[in-house]
Amino acid sequence: xxxxxxxxxxxxxxxxxxxxxxxxxxxxxxxxxxxxxxxxxxxxxxxxxxxxxxxxxxxxxxxxxxxxxxxxxxxxxxxxxxxxxxxxxxxxxxxxxxxxxxxxxxxxxxxxxxxxxxxxxxxxxxxxxxxxxxxxxxxxxxxxxxxxxxxxxxxxxxxxxxxxxxxxxxxxxxxxxxxxxxxxxxxxxxxxxxxxxxxxxxxxxxxxxxxxxxxxxxxxxxxxxxxxxxxxxxxxxx
Length: 238
Hints:
Blueprint: H1 57-66, H2 72-75, E1 83-84, E2 90-94, H3 99-104, H4 111-122, E3 131-134, H5 148-165, E4 169-173, H6 175-182, H7 188-191, E5 196-198, E6 201-206, H8 209-214, H9 219-233
Parallel strand pairs: 2-3, 2-4, 4-6
Antiparallel strand pairs: 1-3, 5-6
């Protein structure tokens, strides 16, 4: 399957796309687990940095805003640490902020963000009841793909966020998010349809909303993925 297409400025400005909840078929057994695990906490880059002493997401957001460990800290307008319920059972992780996110300092607020809100509504989860963030906390110029050094510099913030929140399930939207969390280079097609583990936490991989805007035929498999995430959120054992 081809990689998820890059997000463009247009993805953040066109009319919202609505996703309607569909009548669920009888639940099939959850997919079998996979043995891929993220590196242990002690292996995170910058493990001795002040972020390890951050006891709250707000404190961590202040450290993120002051970060200049890569060039994006100097080129962006605002850092975008993430938002939502700090005690949420579901964390949504995307790739990187886009233009609208850079302007507002909020994640997933452009056209793709509106679609994400509709996706969450379809599984009966208001946006404010989940935590939404990206691997990168600053916008790459031109919405290009994250570079490896940028991911290495920013990933410790994501690891610390997940450690502080302690979610029941993680939804990784798009290949870059899945790669950063699982330490895998597998294709999105290979990663979908399985329950992965991130430090013991079930993790589901699906398409990024920006990809769905250009490829509507991916909405159905995304619907299947988010329903699995919802079942784990509700306490189904995997």
